[in-house]
Amino acid sequence: MAPTLNVKQATGNQSSWNTLLPDFPKGPLSKYRKKASFNWKEMAMFLDGEDIIRLKNRIFSALESDPFFARHPGEELSREKYQELTFLRCKRLFEYDFLTQQEIMENPLKILNLVICIGMYDWSPCLQFFLHCGVFGGTILSASKRFANFVKKIYNMEIFGCFALTELSHGTNTKGIRTTATFDHNTQEFIINSPDFEAAKFWVGNMGKHATHAIVYAQLYTPDGQCQGLHSFIVQIRDTKTLLPMPGVMVGDIGKKIGQNGLDNGFAMFHNVRIPKENILNITGDVSPEGKYSSSFTDVKERFSAALGSLSTGRILITAVSATNLKLALSIAIRFSATRRQFGPTDEEEIPVIEYQTQQWRLLPYLAAAYALDYFSKSLFENFVEFYAGLLTKQKSQRQADLGREIHALSAASKPLSSWTAQQAAQECREACGGHGYLAMNRLGEIRNDNDPNCTYEGDNNVLLQQTSNYLMSWMNCIRNKVPFESPLGTINFLQDYHHIIGWKFKANSVDDCMDSSAPLAAYKWLVCYLLRESDLKLRKEKQSGHSDFEAKNNCQVYFCRSLAIAFVEQTVLQRYHDYTHDPNIPSTLQPVLKNLCALYGLWSLSKHLAVLYQGGYVSGEQAGRFIQNAILELCSRLKDDAVALVDVFAPPDFILNSPIGKASGELYKNMWAEILQGNKALSRPSWWAEFCINKPVTGRLSSRL
Ligand SMILES: CC(C)(COP(=O)(O)OP(=O)(O)OC[C@H]1O[C@@H](n2cnc3c(N)ncnc32)[C@H](O)[C@@H]1OP(=O)(O)O)[C@@H](O)C(=O)NCCC(=O)NCCSC(=O)CCCCCCCCCCCCCCC(=O)O
Ligand SMILES: Cc1cc2nc3c(=O)[nH]c(=O)nc-3n(C[C@H](O)[C@H](O)[C@H](O)COP(=O)(O)OP(=O)(O)OC[C@H]3O[C@@H](n4cnc5c(N)ncnc54)[C@H](O)[C@@H]3O)c2cc1C
Known about the structure:
Layout: H1 14-20, H2 30-35, H3 40-48, H4 50-65, H5 79-96, H6 101-106, H7 109-121, H8 123-143, H9 148-155, E1 161-164, E2 180-184, E3 189-193, E4 201-205, E5 213-221, E6 227-236, E7 249-253, E8 265-270, E9 273-276, E10 286-287, E11 293-294, H10 300-307, H11 311-339, H12 357-392, H13 398-432, H14 444-451, H15 461-473, H16 476-480, H17 498-501, H18 518-544, H19 549-554, H20 557-581, H21 591-607, H22 610-615, H23 621-640, H24 643-650, H25 654-657, H26 668-678, H27 689-693
Helix pairs in contact: 3-4, 3-24, 4-7, 5-8, 7-8, 7-11, 8-9, 11-12, 11-13, 11-14, 11-24, 12-13, 12-20, 12-21, 12-23, 13-14, 13-15, 13-20, 15-20, 18-20, 18-21, 20-21, 21-23
């Protein structure tokens, strides 16, 4: 299915652009804004549409006018104060209730935009709110109608929720979870137990200080002593009136993290905690009053997949969340680079650092990635909406099952791709802003540290990639035996031409031949087929040499299955963005720059696989590699004058971006200076001044004790 999020969008007229998207203040960035090949307002209207822009404006201006969201330059909050403020902000989000059910039903993309807008302000209140309403609430909402009472309490904050899967000693390996839920048919209750402290629930967002209820994943035991596998249960962990722990629950905060410190991540241990029978989230199985287990899944593996199905939602959202961090970091670094002047052709003239080829090559491919990944995350979200509708209506068709598998395979690789790209970009942007990038007020450190766990939570990136390569390898039998196959979203359909594609060669004879994304796209199709063949051969060889399935699979990851999963998802992102940017209905005023972005994203991503392209014989000779490199540089240079306008399209208002060097005026030094002087202690003498002025050290006094 082609994503619907595309060229249907109307751009409106000039007067609607100006009403919704005010002009930026004139200043040092005006020069680059004038040079742009397109109108940034037309692009914003085209990409988002009027309705979404209105929503974004509504959210941003509500936050900007609300004292609870005020920014305080120079203020350093303690962790406890930051947690308190985060909770107060989260409560305000309830009060704003930005979206009605009706609006979400009419356009589900609005919920994604809501996450993005609040996250652009600060990820801590955003995650707190959505872990409760979305992850906790959404899981319960989709489980069964019998939780209607809970649902009401969730959305009026009578209770506060968290999602507790991970334990101290097991995270990615969900089969290793050891918390137990034993059914007692005499009392019609489940008894929740943590066998020891290593099985304590750990890392759980909202659990540290304030969640009253948790979705707890546990091994379900029926009275016959049988373990029925991983299931989830609603467990009350704190009293709703006092926030004190419930009997049998030991719950606390895990301590300071590298980022996201407004959020209270916690631990919990359970000692014979009794919960009513009805609190099992009967998504994959249930227990009768007599204690007999039943499940609509006869296959244990299918049941396990379904039990973890809700994790795909988070992975799709993290793909979008990471793309958002990419946009934030680039907004700051590109505006800085267009105003920061260093060196020049003559002693009299210094030039903006964006004019340097190196600076362009370091930043502009990430700008292209931001556009491609943003489009991909939204299109995958739309695919997910279709799948979710099937879940809610209890669809049991083969298509629904295949769609679930395909979305799992895609999200298990798009989360790694997007989170790693944002992580590397945040560091590159930090360095691209030189010393000023390291000043906390400019926000690049916060963006980098808050993005970091996207690489880990909802499944470690490296382990998740194995899910995608497993999915791809599962088509190898069909490929070998030339049995026709296709998937609901069509992402693997090109593999039907495997035998043909594997014989392809790089066709470009000049840099010009590489300037369209069709060149890297063809190379990617070959790369995926080649890595699939090599991974399959390697796996078979490993098994033939006597290794167990477990060992064989582990020995096939580096350079084989891992590269396969990455190449596949990059190819899929590029294919979707290529189709989008080449649609004949794209306004002719926007198409050239969009095509340049797509080509740059494709070539830059592909260039990281050059060694394998040579190794496998797709490209040969010195020229081929040089064409690709020169095309990347040419595209960077073509996009250089569009770069400021391209970030204007997605940069949030200054208040939200919260970075003096990233402000829309481009008054780099004035903005920094103002922020520094607003810090209430910038000019004051230190409280410990006397330690220098009065209490002098007696030089050498301690040396005799050594
Ligand atoms: C995937 C695993 C690593 C698998 O491990 P195994 O090796 O043990 O299993 P197998 O490979 O054998 O798998 C068996 C079988 O199952 C299939 N499978 C697995 N998962 C899925 C799935 N999700 N969907 C479909 N199918 C699945 C698999 O393909 C196999 O099938 P085949 O044999 O046919 O191939 C697994 O163990 C795993 O998932 N590990 C990771 C654990 C994890 O993710 N933990 C998360 C804990 S919670 C957390 O971290 C939260 C953090 C905070 C998150 C912030 C989110 C930001 C955004 C929030 C905004 C939300 C807004 C919501 C909006 C709204 O609705 O309002
Ligand atoms: C900020 C934050 C918030 C979180 N919030 C929540 C929450 O709300 N609820 C919740 O339940 N959990 C939460 N988590 C936990 C998170 O989901 C886990 O940390 C994550 O699933 C990874 O598991 P792990 O930490 O056990 O890593 P491990 O699985 O122990 O991984 C450690 C290392 O070993 C490697 N490794 C492991 N297995 C393999 C393998 N088979 N092959 C190759 N390499 C392997 C990994 O690549 C990784 O580098 C949160 C984590 C963080 C950081």
